[in-house]
Amino acid sequence: MTRVLVVDDEPQILRALRINLLARHFEVAVAPDGGSALRQAADWHPDLVVLDLGLPDIDGVDVIHGLRGWTAVPIIVLSGRAGNQDKVEALDAGADDYVTKPFNIEELLARMRAVTRRTAVQDAEPARIEIGGHTVDLAGKTISGGVRLTPTEWRMLELLLRNPGKLISQRQMLTEVWDSKHTTETNYLRQYMAQLRRKLEPDPARPVHLLTEPGMGYRFQP
């Protein structure tokens, strides 16, 4: 049974999520503030954290930093802060995804399934992944159909494929594919993503696997 820690200072949201998740056979713990969330996580070791940013004692981004100091548990931010900057800060701190309030419970559950699958895939270390009718061999660095990628394209694609369903922020991708000196060069990302789509998507103008989240980053949708 998947253990989910829900962190929110609104009692009605804690109650609603607890009821919905228990009904779907999750094991649920709740925390009304950042301090108790960090203590619960250390004691209970959840499989997934659903976290509000606007907490009464510690900002949610600081909670993410606190968790990332010792655990790679998937974190989904559930927040009323709709601005792109808030989303980017949460993702750069280590969150795996971001859902804006008011939210649809089915969308939240879909995001939870996606990050859970991503964790399972990372644990399994997949060698081959299907995308757009092609088979990508991550270990052998080959793609079926004679598709050839540049080293930079490979680094971008591998980062996305090893994190299926996860939103990879622009800053993270620039840092990991280039280096920390290029975190504002978002034009690089647009250029290389367009090249990847031309090589891998059946219809590059309407991508279904290599998706853009405007102002935030990119996501691989299996």
TrEMBL record:
InterPro entries: CheY-like_superfamily (IPR011006), OmpR/PhoB-type_DNA-bd (IPR001867), Sig_transdc_resp-reg_C-effctor (IPR016032), Sig_transdc_resp-reg_receiver (IPR001789), WalR-like (IPR039420), WH-like_DNA-bd_sf (IPR036388). It comes from Streptosporangium minutum. GO terms for molecular function: cis-regulatory region sequence-specific DNA binding; identical protein binding; phosphorelay response regulator activity. Residues 116-222 bind DNA. This is DNA-binding response regulator. GO terms for biological process: positive regulation of DNA-templated transcription. Keywords: Cytoplasm, DNA-binding, Phosphoprotein, Transcription, Transcription regulation, Two-component regulatory system. The modification 4-aspartylphosphate is found at residue 52. Gene3D superfamilies: 3.40.50.2300, 6.10.250.690, Winged helix-like DNA-binding domain superfamily/Winged helix DNA-binding domain (1.10.10.10). It comes from the Bacteria. SMART domains: REC, Trans_reg_C. It holds the Pfam family Trans_reg_C. Residues 116-222 form the OmpR/PhoB-type domain. Signal peptide: none annotated. One of its GO terms (cellular component) is protein-DNA complex. It is found in: Cytoplasm. Residues 3-116 form the Response regulatory domain.
